[in-house]
Amino acid sequence: MRFRAPDDLTARSPLPQPWEDIFGPLRHGAIDDLVVIGQCGQSIDARIATPTGHSHYINGEAGLTHLHRLRALVDAVVIGVGTAIADDPQLTVRRVDGESPARIVIDPKGRLPASARLLTRDGVRRLVITAADATPALPDDVEIVPLATADGELAPATILTALAARGFRRLLIEGGANTVSRFLAARCLDRLHILVAPIILGSGQSSLNLPPIARVEEATRASMRAHVLGPDVLLDCDLSAQRVPIGRAKMSR
Asked: What is the pLDDT of residues 131-143, one digit of tens each?
């Protein structure tokens, strides 16, 4: 089945099932004109890699295809520099029909090597978000987005504001775990897609690492729907009720 391109997603007509249930909520933001989706693939015990860092591939073919569908539906995919260096991903759309999104790396200290595969010249926009005082050595056609830091970190809301100013409206925060966790903790996600694979690793890196809480009632709560994708289960978590406003606010009719 051919998957729909990003422009098709904004149409009023419903998508065929099961795509309407999964991707229909990504049409429009509930808080403003942005839609920000976090994504992680994990084991049953919420691990994204073994203690040695091996993670290829925890999720099955259907789960990987889902990730590529998400990429085909967003304006840009965002990862942290740690993931860019460790995995050297392409961040393209290969498993489904559609256009590859812009590729964005959060790199406060200018660590990304110019040889990274996501910087390949293929007609897609490539951006590196860095600290204002960093001096990354990157190809001339890569867009550098210098931002002010707080305690050496780039705030998720500041990042989204800068990307919205550059025309990006639908964003996929793909990884790694620290990057997704920071956007979640900062209340900068509309939805979180968690793909659970039918394996137990027992130890290794956790999929999310959030500030500790003292009591259960302090936990972030979200409405959730589950979808079976081959051997994996997709947990689609709606976080829009707690997302902070960033883009143009919704106007009352």
From this structure: 999 999 999 999 9
